[in-house]
Amino acid sequence: MVTADWPGVDPEWSRTIEVASTSDADAPGTVRRWHLLDNGAQLSRLGLAPAGTLLCVHGNPTWSYLWRTLLAAGSDAAHPWRVVAVDQLDMGYSERTGTFRGLADRINDLGDLTDALGLDGPVVTAGHDWGGVISLGWALAHPQHLAGVVLTNTAVHQPSDSAIPPALRLALHPAVHGWGTTTTDAFLRVTHSLAHPPLPADVRKAYMAPYREAHRRAGVGNFVADIPVDASHPSFPALTGVAERLRGLKVPALMLWGPRDPVFSDRYLKDLITRFPHADVHRFEGAGHLLAEDRNIAAPVFQWLAENVGDRENSSAEADAMTPGGQRLDHAAEPEQAEFRPLWDLLGRQAAGPAGADTAVAEMAPDGTVARSLSWQQLDRNILDLAAGLREAGVDSGSRVSLMVPPGVDLTVALYACLRLGAVVVVADAGLGTKGLSRAVKGATPDFLIGIDKALAAASVLGWPGRRISVRELPAARRRMLGVEASLDALAHTGAGRGSSQPGDSVDPDAPAAVLFTSGSTGPAKGVLYAHRQLAAMRDTVAATFDIRPGARLVAGFAPFALLGPALGAVSVTPAMDVTAPRTLTACALAGAAAAIGATVVFASPAALRNVLATRDDLDQAGRKALDGIGLLLSAGAPVPEPLLAEVQRLLPRAALHTPYGMTEALPVTDISLGQIQAADADAAAGTVLGAGNGVCVGWPVHGARVAVVPLAADGTAPGSQPLMEPGITGELLVSAPHVKEAYDRLWLVQRESSSVPGWHRTGDVGHFDGAGRLWVEGRLAHVVTAPGAVVTPVGAEQAIERLDAVRLAAITGVGPAGTQAVVAVVETVPAARKAGPAAPQLAGSVRRAALEAGVQVSAVLQVPAQPTDIRHNAKIDRSRLSRWATRVLAGGRPGKP
Hints:
The protein has 898 residues and is α/β, with parallel strands linked by helices. It folds into four domains: 11-161 and 231-314, 3-Layer(aba) Sandwich (Rossmann fold), CATH 3.40.50; 345-551 and 569-586, Rossmann fold (3-Layer(aba) Sandwich), CATH 3.40.50; 672-757 and 766-778, Luciferase, Domain 3 (Luciferase, domain 3, Roll), CATH 2.30.38; 785-890, GMP Synthetase, Chain A, domain 3. The chain is built from 33 helices and 36 strands. The strands form six sheets. The protein has an eight-stranded mixed β-sheet with strand order 1-2-4-3-5-6-7-8, sandwiched between helices. It has an eight-stranded mixed β-sheet with strand order 15-14-13-11-12-16-17-28, with helices on both faces. Helix 2 links the parallel strand 3 (53-57) and strand 4. The longest helix is centred in the middle third of the chain and has 17 residues, at 376-392. It is globular, with a radius of gyration of 30 Å.
């Protein structure tokens, strides 16, 4: 018996067992001693009948200790599971055999053990690192017992055209291998250092305990030596056999992944997804190789088991109520689906109609002239030619193509060409910043990357995945340096004349079409997966809500709408600006773009409108005349204050000003005009309408959409599942519409939570309805402050504070433990403060009084030279970041920059 004195391990779990070996590595009749952590006896003693067995297999150089949180969770009476975590032979506290055991041997060894234990179904395997392959080998050999598969960072295939990870190359080097893995404990220490955050000292000690002496580390070295680097390796046939047979394994699968892994990068996850296309996948941003140490994996594993394995009849029924992307459906509430027309339907009709020779898409040069333009016929022809060329290059249905091209002619052609091929476009805004953009691209693992020179250079430096295609033809030396295979120009030339016979207009409406990344203003940017049907529904919703018909002429100063113009059958122009930095749009640039096409519609973000107003004095008479022709302005991306809209109205006197509310997951959701905002504010001031006030009024649901709330609890959460639409109830906002996203890409946990109310998407925003049916947004659920005896939503108080002449932007945040948080106001002043820190007494008093009028008692007032806003919209304040900063300041720390 092994003494189990390891933190987090119940001594009752530790046991040893003698197992007769049938491995070719052993002589006939050999018996091996295994150590394992097994809660089976404990469950029996407690009178708990397990729902099944979770068979956990560690990798190198860990041991069964890796799975201790699963053992603890499986011992819970609420969801008892027998958890058997093995120490592989030559590892942990199992016997040191003195033999070299290859992959096939280890798969066989595990089978010997489970036979000796008498394990039968349902069994779910869990594997990490090289233990992932071994667990899958066991799963394939025991289909009669298998009920599911759980994997954390692992791999089953090494692409022949790419080298193994550098860390493994180093460990395999003859000059390093023996010394690094066996003679010393270097390999163990390096592996343990991969934890994020670092492992506590007692946990590191527990991981090291079985490997203190060199003779106990022989298995560590042999595991490394058993990595099949090419087809000549003895274990290559076994690995290939496991990899190929996985495609026929149809049991439920869960993959939990740490992207910060120098060994098993996202390319290995992508390979596993191709073999398990039905798997639930969740990537934990910031986590790495030792995922079970970096994150609590027990909770999601047992949630998944309960839904997929614990009750097979219920889980089967639930599966019937899910879309392929994991969105739960409320069948009773499903609207009747309209006839599907692909996103490019109106584009094709315009090209074939009387307007075919008219301008369809244009982009402006910095000097105010039209830099490039295409007619509808040219646009349609170019799309077909490029689609044919892309197919020749290997882009096919289901291929992921990252588009790193600024809005304009090139992006329009590339986007629609990919969609018509059935490829999945990946769009991550450069405004996410280098770190955020890199994280998004690596997470999406595109097969191809189409980019401008700057994006291709970043791809080379940062190691972004995907075969590279440049927008323009590059010099040969530059192509080689950037790893570019082709250019859009060359591919379009290759496909010229063959486009009409290759990509047809038939597309599966429910096939994936796009992965669009969120702004990253409330955490790491999330990939939002859309099917073709949902993109088409977005087009139809925008057209119906704002009466945008074919022939309309729009200026797209807001990136998400830059690509909708051709889908709406509208002439579109991209103004001279950096669309990744909205505040670069000037009044002259807006007017020049409007004049170029005789624009009737403008899409622009609030940050862009602020700069347009700031530069309006530069307009000449021709520019003002062009703006006079605008009949509709839409501003989205962040709340738009009424005073800002009133100023815009004076600049665009004939325009109806609308501020649709929405998100990357559903755009738009509601809509309201300037006049309706003013009426809502008047109702709030007069107190004549129940629930009017305390937030930003965003109006009524758009065409085809429904909105509801789940009430907030005293702890600031929204735990319910009953959608309500009564006025005056504050809660998390729910949305149901044909254009709501399919799923979050490779974020199973986030998707599960967002769809926990059947038929609805949980937005994470907080708000309420008033008596007139209008929706008021009060902030984000994550930013709710739980003060003593009160739940404080931030937006109402922020608006009240921003009415002060001395305040440009205000943010309400909480400091302290949940339930007893102090409410802190952080203000950006006019003029800007020179340094951050506590506000002057006079300003602090004014801010407190203003907040109190909104019903919020502020405990402290701090000032900053500039609020930390998201890069993409230049408008959404990072309240979580401010909370951390305010905590430091109020604790006596140096203010520094928030």
